[in-house]
TrEMBL record:
Signal sequence range: none
Keyword Metal-binding appears in the UniProt entry: no
An example molecular function term from Gene Ontology annotations: RNA binding
Organism: Linnemannia hyalina
GO BP terms in the entry: maturation of LSU-rRNA; rRNA base methylation
Entry annotation: catalytic residues: C487
Biased segments, Acidic residues type: 76-95, 105-115, 127-158
Gene that encodes it: NOP2
Binding site residues for S-adenosyl-L-methionine: A362, S363, A364, P365, G366, G367, K368, D386, D413, D430
Domain of life: Eukaryota
Protein name: Nucleolar protein 2
Length: 641
């Protein structure tokens, strides 16, 4: 980025059509199929249209929320009806065949193909029709001549026939020419990538850069027809990455990391969504009030709000408020927590049951701990831990304000668990992360995260996840679950960490998060292949779900003993302990098991700890591979000390 001007946020980009105010009522995320949002993206965007299906909310039969709409909107009923309808459509749309979908859910792709058939195709048929019509007129005219000259000589007859043949030949030639025209891509449609010393390439004018981004995306979406000469996809992508860094203000390392998570057009939607604030949301504290009562009190103060979506029974989205929402009497009385919608998700996935002992391993400032306490109805115990002592102050304050009576606040490095205390029914690890899902809240992430930071973070996350797993009692009557979450969208901090945990702790398996929206976790990413069960984990994106980027994975611990890796055990026998082996076994040998050998395997256990040296080697090997495949650089093997 050195030498590049800082992007003028909001200046040149004012023209960007995707710059919508997410706090306006109409932009309620789960009510707006993303196929619609995709249409306003600055660059031809097809990504995300599946999210209408993905965002299908769960049934909310317990709470009748019609009150909120009526009360909030007053005379605005028609608008609300409309939003409700869209929402229902999204839900229904998830189950019906594409052929039965209405236009909204067919998405841009279908709309475009419709357009196309009306476009060049229509023109082609139009000219055919004209030709035929013209020819018909000519024939009629000839018929008139013919009938008027019944007694004419053979010579005249020959002339007429010859004229007719000429006309037919001419029409055929014109038709052939017309066909060629519709099939040939105009040279001007191709995007000529500027040469190195080209004036346009040097331009840092954000409008020029934005136009170039749009052009390159257009080419990449139709590469075969629109590329210039022998230019490779990489030529276009490397220019695009530079332009995206310039336009959105990311460092090159992070830009590349994020760019490859999405198809090209969707990546632009993601970066664009990071420029727009997410909706303000609050969580009703059910230890003190109910959502209906809270909403009524806030409405009486002039606050404009709505339920956050059918997927949550406690969330409210605040559109605007004449009073600071973090200082109302209701807030001070602990009736709600100001909390991002995405951060409800890991607690919903954890699904704590009354009277359980739950550990929140990295808990400050306590949004999730206090939600756990509320779901426990102040029974059982929440151990709210955080390594940062300063941050535990706000954690304690929130616990008091919200009337939580079943919490113990502690200040340990999470990696010390279960040495501190273990045997929990459930553990939540909302891990420290890079924050790439919350760039709209903290733009400094764009530039302040280096490759080293990502390596350190993922190493810490791997250590913490093993500690979280080891802190759970697999024998818990009601639980035995671990939820891992981050507010980051990078694969290193999510699927990679979960995959590592599955390898190191074969006594856990992934289970459904129970969240019925969100994109599946990756089972493959670039050169990496992960365990197939990682598709059970869920990803959330700002451009798709209109909430912070988030990741949620849920494990079930099936044994307190960790089978020894190098044990000479028949794969069949190990299946109840190792999800990875379980899959292979089922595929290869029909999934039979013999409990005797499995029991023998667990008798000889080892505590698999985090092995920093082993990981360093793995990280280095993967970096070397990446450098070689992408940049052709071959690293020399590291000399041993
Ligand atoms: C994403 S935040 C947690 C947010 C919190 N769960 C909530 O909902 O309010 C991550 C937290 O991890 C804490 N942390 C960082 N390293 C840690 C470690 N080694 N052990 C425990 N906590 C740690 C940070 O202090 C930070 O508060």
């Amino acid at each position: 980025m050195a030498g590049r001007p800082a992007p003028k946020k909001g200046a040149n980009k004012a023209a960007s059509p995707a710059q919508t105010n997410n706090n306006k009522r109409k932009s309620n995320p789960s009510k707006e199929p993303s196929s619609k949002k995709a249409k306003v993206a600055p660059v031809a965007a097809k990504g995300g249209k599946k999210s209408a299906k993905a965002a299908a909310p769960q049934d909310d039969s317990e709470d009748d929320e019609s009150w909120a709409y009526g009360a909030v909107s007053g005379s605005d009923d028609s608008e609300i009806e409309e939003m409700d309808d869209e929402f229902v459509s999204a839900e229904e749309g998830s189950d019906i065949e594409v052929g039965a979908l209405n236009d909204d859910f067919l998405g841009d792709e279908f709309a475009e193909s419709d357009e196309e058939s009306k476009g060049p195709g229509a023109a082609m048929f139009g000219s055919d029709d004209e030709d035929e019509e013209g020819q018909g007129e000519e024939e009629d005219e000839e018929d008139i001549f013919a009938s008027n000259s019944e007694d004419d000589s053979d010579e005249d007859d020959m002339e007429a026939k010859s004229r007719k043949l000429d006309a037919a030949a001419q029409a055929e030639a014109e038709e052939a020419e017309a066909e060629m025209q519709t099939n040939i891509m105009l040279e001007s449609d191709k995007y000529v990538l500027p040469g190195d010393d080209h004036e346009i390439l040097q331009s840092t004018d954000l409008q020029v850069v934005q136009a170039r981004i749009q052009e390159i995306v257009r080419v990449l979406n139709n590469f075969r027809d629109m590329r210039e000469g022998n230019r490779s996809r990489n030529d276009y992508i490397s220019q695009l990455l530079k332009d995206l860094c310039l336009y959105y203000g990311y460092n090159e390392y992070l830009m590349e990391k994020l760019f490859y998570i999405f198809p090209v057009s969707e990546a632009i939607e993601f970066f664009e969504a990071n420029e727009v604030p997410r909706p303000v949301t609050i969580r009703t504290n059910t230890l003190k009030t109910r959502r209906r009562e809270l909403a009524q009190s806030l409405i009486n103060r002039g606050v404009n709000l709505d339920p956050v979506g059918k997927w949550s029974k406690v969330g409210l989205q605040v559109f605007d408020s004449p009073v600071p929402i973090g200082a109302t009497p209701e807030y001070l009385a602990g009736h709600y927590m100001l909390q991002a919608a995405s951060s409800f998700l890991p607690v919903m996935a954890l699904a704590p049951q009354e009277h359980e002992r739950v550990l929140d391993m990295a808990s400050a400032p306590g949004g999730k701990s206090t939600y756990i306490a509320a779901l426990l109805k102040n029974t059982g115990m929440v151990f709210a831990n955080d390594a940062n002592k300063d941050r535990t102050k706000s954690l304690v304050a929130n616990i008091h304000r919200l009337g939580v009576k079943n919490a113990v606040v502690c200040n340990y490095d999470g990696r010390e668990f279960p040495g501190v205390i273990g045997g929990f029914d459930r553990v939540l690890l909302d891990a420290p992360c890079s924050g790439t899902g919350v760039i709209s809240k903290d733009a400094s992430v764009k530039t302040n995260k280096s490759e080293q930071d990502f390596q350190m973070l993922s190493q810490l996350q791997k250590q913490l996840i093993l500690a979280a797993i080891d802190s759970v009692d697999a024998g818990s009557k009601t639980g035995g679950y671990i939820v891992y979450s981050t507010c980051s969208v990078t694969v290193d901090e999510n699927e990679d960490v979960v995959n590592y945990a599955l390898k190191k702790r074969p006594n856990v398996k992934l289970v459904s998060t129970g969240l019925d929206f969100g994109k599946e976790g990756f089972t493959r990413f670039r050169e990496k292949v992960f365990h197939p069960s990682i598709s059970l984990t869920r990803r959330y994106y700002p451009h798709m779900h209109n909430m912070d980027g988030f990741y949620v994975a849920k494990f079930k611990k099936v044994s307190n003993k960790i089978p020894k890796k190098e044990d000479n055990v028949d794969l069949d026998e190990e299946e109840e302990f190792t999800p990875i082996v379980e899959e292979a076994t089922k595929r290869n040998r029909g999934g039979k098991k013999s409990p005797g050998a499995a029991a023998k395997a667990v008798e000889e256990v080892e505590q698999i700890g985090f092995n920093a040296n082993e990981d360093e080697e793995l990280i280095r090997a993967s970096q070397a591979k990446l450098l070689q495949t992408q940049k052709g650089i071959k690293l020399r093997p590291k000399k041993s000390a």
